[in-house]
Amino acid sequence: MKLEYEIALEFFLWGVEVFSRRDCGLILAGFRHTTSERHLEQLLERWRRQQLVTRHGRGRNAEFTITDRGRERVGVFNPHRPWSAPWDGKWRVFSFDLPSDRRKDRTRLWRALHNAKLGCLQHSVWVWPHDVETLLRETIQAQGIPECFCGFEANRLFLCNNAEVVVTAWNFEEITHRHDTYLHHQVATPASLNRARDLTELAHVARIERDAYQYAFSLDPMLPRILWPEHYTGVLVEERHQHFRATLQRRLQELRSAP
């Protein structure tokens, strides 16, 4: 999860290459509803010390430019990367067996696998379409239960097909519901950006949209296109988000140049 100051810095990547101290204060106010002069100075200094921004000038007239390190630090999520990832046709299948007296371990492990968006095919049998060994080893090490896993690659399915595996392993009914929640959101819209009167209001709408966008993909495993279930709506979410981003960039420039 990104820290608050990383979220604020990400906002500038959406449309402002060089920003002023005033810009930062207004945008932070929109993200947090309120901000203080002390907090603003601490934030800008933290960005500078971590080489996320470069300061030009001093005091209230200072301006800031995002560095390459800053861009890398807050790299914007791009669903087209996992969607476009090639698939070798193999399912990675892994299972674990924990006795009933280790219920807490079972719950902790299940939560870790679920948070990684891996697919639960049946009880303790999980699947993923890409190499997952490194992730599993890290998960096992973190949870402290290394003796219970078994993993293998499946080159061929029988008695079912890939589409059935997908809709069984992931709850696409809930995933689609979250997509629809974003698509029908009444505040996080380009129209709301056009109605914003200043950078504070603009940032407020952007914060709401960002939360809604994250929620839309919070359960989505971002499978390769070849494995998309029928009527997959994630691509509609991304199209609307990109339209929002384009409108945000335009409004940022308009409001910053306004007298």
In short:
Helix content is 53%, strand content 12%.
Adjacency order of strands in the biggest sheet: 5-6-4-7
Rg of Cα set: 22 Å
Question: What series of H and E elements makes up the topology?
Answer: HEHHEEHHEHEEHEHHHHH
Could you report the average pLDDT, rounded to the nearest whole number? 86
Number of helices in the DSSP assignment: 12
Question: How are the secondary structure elements laid out?
Answer:
Elements lengths: L3 H10 L4 E3 H12 L4 H13 L3 E4 L6 E4 L1 H6 L6 H5 L6 E6 L6 H13 L3 E4 L2 E4 L4 H11 L5 E6 L7 H8 L2 H12 L6 H6 L3 H18 L17 H24 L2
Antiparallel strand pairs: 1-3, 2-3, 4-6, 4-7, 5-6
Structure description:
With 259 residues, the protein is an alpha+beta fold. The chain has three domains: 4-73, Arc Repressor Mutant, subunit A (Orthogonal Bundle); 90-154, Alpha-Beta Plaits (2-Layer Sandwich); 169-257. It has helices at residues 4-13, 21-32, 37-49, 68-73, 80-84, 103-115, 133-143, 162-169, 172-183, 190-195, 199-216, 234-257; strands spanning 18-20, 53-56, 63-66, 91-96, 119-122, 125-128, 149-154. A four-stranded antiparallel β-sheet has the order 5-6-4-7. It is elongated and about 70 Å long. The model has no long low-confidence stretch (mean pLDDT 86).
Q: How would you describe this structure in keywords?
A:
259 residues, alpha+beta, Arc Repressor Mutant, subunit A, Alpha-Beta Plaits, 3 domains, four-stranded antiparallel sheet, three-stranded antiparallel sheet, 12 helices, 12% strand
